[in-house]
């Protein structure tokens, strides 16, 4: 396995180098990788794992330098990217939070302002209830909400990336329920544990972290988790809803395609390295490489799904 991985890294490094010669030896200076959140979070962790793999394996002739730019739910760092020259020397890593804010017009940028470089990983959320909850399936939960709507509340991050699939789940179920604005994943878990809310969407890491304290009802992905094969998807239970945080790399619109290709090749090689694979396994994420036209199409579909429920989400913000 190590021999195969070494061969892959060497091959891609050589390919990247030759591509660089074809683009006037790009890069000729360090590349700034903006992480629009604080140090220590999931976005920062993956960015630094990718950075170390690229730099330690000499996949580029110049280093990647991570720069944290937190604030406004990722908007501060994202705007820094858009203010930079489209030359491939400033890139961004973020998940769908950037376009969740765009869909509800919290920010003035849209996918058209960016060049997608590559998607590296996927972490599909799951529907969680407390371990002693009476619900053992989505159908049981939805049925009880229909009968006792006043007794059910969901913990969520109002206006955040998980709020959109929450609205989509309500639409698929044909019933609405109150959402309590508690914030990020750890706060949602705390609210659930304290009995203040009856359901929350959590990331896959919490299946292990909160084992014995929560009961998962459904994966909001297209497939079951490899590490939890008995947990069905929402779609299997009759609810066509997906909610996956996909960590992607971006450049400003107008960045030369040759530079995008060099970056995508390099990041893909790093993502396949043992150190990044180990990081993904530890955080409950899975390697999910998507690039090129396929990635552009995927971004367009996701953004359209956000816009479709944006008015409902904005209504929650005004309440």
From TrEMBL:
Signal peptide: 1-22
InterPro entries reported in the protein's UniProt record: BUG, Bug_dom1
Protein keywords: Receptor, Signal
Membrane-spanning parts: none
Similarity field: Belongs to the UPF0065 (bug) family.
Name the UniProt record assigns to this protein: Tripartite-type tricarboxylate transporter, receptor component TctC
Organism, scientific name: Vreelandella arcis
